[in-house]
Model the fold of this input.
Amino acid sequence: MGLDIPWTRQLWHRWKALRNVPWRKSWFVGYDLDGNSYWESTDYNNPYRLRRRVEWGNKKHMADFRAVPQWMQWLRHARPHPPTLEELIADQRRQQQLKLLAQQADQRWNQIPVQSTNDKDPRLASAWTGGATPAPVEEPELEGFVYPEKKDEQRVFNAQQIIKQRDAERNRGSKA
Done:
Protein backbone atom coordinates (compact mmCIF):
# COMPACT_ATOMS: atom_id res chain seq x y z
CA MET A 1 0.00 0.00 0.00
CA GLY A 2 3.01 2.27 -0.14
CA LEU A 3 3.50 5.03 -2.62
CA ASP A 4 6.11 3.78 -5.13
CA ILE A 5 6.14 6.32 -7.96
CA PRO A 6 9.34 6.50 -10.03
CA TRP A 7 11.07 9.86 -10.05
CA THR A 8 10.62 10.18 -13.81
CA ARG A 9 6.86 9.85 -13.47
CA GLN A 10 6.86 12.33 -10.59
CA LEU A 11 8.78 14.81 -12.75
CA TRP A 12 6.37 14.26 -15.62
CA HIS A 13 3.39 14.83 -13.24
CA ARG A 14 4.96 18.08 -12.02
CA TRP A 15 5.17 19.25 -15.63
CA LYS A 16 1.54 18.18 -16.19
CA ALA A 17 0.44 20.03 -13.05
CA LEU A 18 1.36 23.43 -14.52
CA ARG A 19 -1.85 25.28 -15.34
CA ASN A 20 -0.36 28.26 -17.14
CA VAL A 21 0.53 26.30 -20.28
CA PRO A 22 -1.91 27.65 -22.90
CA TRP A 23 -2.51 24.49 -24.96
CA ARG A 24 -2.96 22.16 -21.96
CA LYS A 25 -6.49 20.85 -21.48
CA SER A 26 -5.97 18.59 -18.43
CA TRP A 27 -3.92 19.08 -15.28
CA PHE A 28 -2.43 16.66 -12.80
CA VAL A 29 -3.79 17.20 -9.28
CA GLY A 30 -2.37 14.51 -7.00
CA TYR A 31 -1.81 10.92 -5.91
CA ASP A 32 -3.36 8.62 -3.39
CA LEU A 33 -1.47 6.01 -1.36
CA ASP A 34 -2.27 3.26 -3.90
CA GLY A 35 -0.48 5.09 -6.73
CA ASN A 36 -3.62 6.29 -8.53
CA SER A 37 -3.37 9.73 -10.11
CA TYR A 38 -6.14 12.34 -10.15
CA TRP A 39 -6.71 14.86 -12.92
CA GLU A 40 -8.80 17.91 -13.78
CA SER A 41 -9.71 18.94 -17.30
CA THR A 42 -11.85 21.53 -19.01
CA ASP A 43 -15.45 20.70 -19.74
CA TYR A 44 -16.64 22.06 -23.06
CA ASN A 45 -20.30 21.81 -22.01
CA ASN A 46 -19.76 23.75 -18.78
CA PRO A 47 -16.72 26.06 -18.88
CA TYR A 48 -17.25 27.19 -15.26
CA ARG A 49 -16.82 23.72 -13.79
CA LEU A 50 -13.81 21.48 -14.31
CA ARG A 51 -14.18 17.78 -15.00
CA ARG A 52 -12.40 15.48 -12.53
CA ARG A 53 -11.17 11.93 -13.15
CA VAL A 54 -8.88 9.24 -11.81
CA GLU A 55 -6.28 7.16 -13.63
CA TRP A 56 -5.77 3.88 -11.82
CA GLY A 57 -2.11 3.21 -11.09
CA ASN A 58 -2.05 -0.57 -10.95
CA LYS A 59 -3.39 -2.53 -13.87
CA LYS A 60 -5.79 -5.02 -12.31
CA HIS A 61 -9.43 -6.05 -12.53
CA MET A 62 -11.90 -3.15 -12.34
CA ALA A 63 -13.71 -4.67 -9.34
CA ASP A 64 -10.49 -4.50 -7.30
CA PHE A 65 -10.08 -0.72 -7.61
CA ARG A 66 -11.06 1.50 -4.73
CA ALA A 67 -10.58 5.16 -4.02
CA VAL A 68 -10.30 6.63 -0.55
CA PRO A 69 -13.24 8.77 0.66
CA GLN A 70 -11.26 12.03 0.56
CA TRP A 71 -10.53 11.59 -3.14
CA MET A 72 -14.09 10.44 -3.86
CA GLN A 73 -15.35 13.66 -2.26
CA TRP A 74 -13.00 15.66 -4.45
CA LEU A 75 -14.05 13.76 -7.59
CA ARG A 76 -17.71 14.52 -6.90
CA HIS A 77 -17.04 18.23 -6.25
CA ALA A 78 -18.08 17.89 -2.59
CA ARG A 79 -14.62 19.09 -1.59
CA PRO A 80 -13.01 22.11 -3.28
CA HIS A 81 -9.35 21.21 -2.65
CA PRO A 82 -7.70 17.82 -3.20
CA PRO A 83 -6.45 15.94 -0.13
CA THR A 84 -2.76 16.02 0.67
CA LEU A 85 -0.57 12.96 1.16
CA GLU A 86 -0.15 13.91 4.83
CA GLU A 87 -3.92 13.90 5.28
CA LEU A 88 -4.21 10.49 3.62
CA ILE A 89 -1.41 9.03 5.75
CA ALA A 90 -3.00 10.43 8.93
CA ASP A 91 -6.35 8.88 7.98
CA GLN A 92 -4.69 5.52 7.29
CA ARG A 93 -3.01 5.65 10.73
CA ARG A 94 -6.35 6.54 12.31
CA GLN A 95 -8.00 3.52 10.67
CA GLN A 96 -5.22 1.20 11.84
CA GLN A 97 -5.50 2.58 15.38
CA LEU A 98 -9.27 2.14 15.30
CA LYS A 99 -8.88 -1.51 14.24
CA LEU A 100 -6.41 -2.07 17.09
CA LEU A 101 -8.74 -0.46 19.64
CA ALA A 102 -11.67 -2.56 18.39
CA GLN A 103 -9.56 -5.71 18.69
CA GLN A 104 -8.56 -4.77 22.26
CA ALA A 105 -12.21 -4.08 23.14
CA ASP A 106 -13.20 -7.49 21.77
CA GLN A 107 -10.50 -9.15 23.88
CA ARG A 108 -11.69 -7.32 27.01
CA TRP A 109 -15.30 -8.23 26.23
CA ASN A 110 -14.41 -11.92 25.84
CA GLN A 111 -12.61 -11.93 29.22
CA ILE A 112 -15.69 -10.76 31.14
CA PRO A 113 -17.47 -13.72 32.78
CA VAL A 114 -21.09 -14.03 31.73
CA GLN A 115 -23.56 -13.62 34.59
CA SER A 116 -27.31 -13.48 34.74
CA THR A 117 -28.59 -10.12 35.88
CA ASN A 118 -32.14 -11.34 36.44
CA ASP A 119 -32.47 -14.52 38.51
CA LYS A 120 -36.26 -14.48 38.25
CA ASP A 121 -36.33 -14.93 34.50
CA PRO A 122 -35.33 -18.54 33.66
CA ARG A 123 -34.84 -17.65 30.00
CA LEU A 124 -31.92 -15.38 30.85
CA ALA A 125 -30.31 -17.86 33.20
CA SER A 126 -30.45 -20.74 30.71
CA ALA A 127 -29.37 -18.56 27.80
CA TRP A 128 -26.34 -17.19 29.66
CA THR A 129 -25.27 -20.53 31.03
CA GLY A 130 -25.32 -22.13 27.62
CA GLY A 131 -28.43 -24.29 28.16
CA ALA A 132 -29.80 -26.02 25.11
CA THR A 133 -33.40 -24.84 25.45
CA PRO A 134 -34.78 -22.02 27.54
CA ALA A 135 -37.42 -22.80 30.12
CA PRO A 136 -40.97 -21.99 29.00
CA VAL A 137 -42.32 -18.72 30.31
CA GLU A 138 -45.95 -17.67 30.31
CA GLU A 139 -46.58 -14.75 28.04
CA PRO A 140 -47.95 -11.72 29.86
CA GLU A 141 -51.55 -10.74 29.21
CA LEU A 142 -51.60 -7.59 27.11
CA GLU A 143 -54.44 -5.18 27.70
CA GLY A 144 -56.55 -4.65 24.60
CA PHE A 145 -54.78 -7.40 22.65
CA VAL A 146 -56.92 -10.31 21.49
CA TYR A 147 -55.25 -13.68 21.10
CA PRO A 148 -56.78 -15.60 18.19
CA GLU A 149 -57.62 -18.63 20.35
CA LYS A 150 -59.28 -16.47 23.04
CA LYS A 151 -61.41 -14.34 20.74
CA ASP A 152 -64.63 -16.00 21.89
CA GLU A 153 -63.88 -15.45 25.56
CA GLN A 154 -62.90 -11.80 25.43
CA ARG A 155 -65.20 -8.89 24.80
CA VAL A 156 -64.13 -6.95 21.75
CA PHE A 157 -65.55 -3.59 20.84
CA ASN A 158 -66.36 -3.53 17.18
CA ALA A 159 -67.38 -0.58 15.04
CA GLN A 160 -71.13 -1.10 15.58
CA GLN A 161 -70.81 -0.91 19.37
CA ILE A 162 -68.76 2.29 19.12
CA ILE A 163 -71.33 3.88 16.77
CA LYS A 164 -74.18 2.91 19.16
CA GLN A 165 -72.35 4.51 22.09
CA ARG A 166 -71.69 7.70 20.10
CA ASP A 167 -75.33 7.91 19.00
CA ALA A 168 -76.53 7.42 22.56
CA GLU A 169 -74.28 10.27 23.76
CA ARG A 170 -75.57 12.57 21.00
CA ASN A 171 -79.19 11.77 21.87
CA ARG A 172 -78.56 12.59 25.51
CA GLY A 173 -76.98 15.91 24.51
CA SER A 174 -79.85 16.91 22.18
CA LYS A 175 -82.58 16.10 24.78
CA ALA A 176 -80.97 18.25 27.45
Notes: The first helix runs from residue 7 to 16. The radius of gyration is 34 Å. The chain has a mean pLDDT of 76.
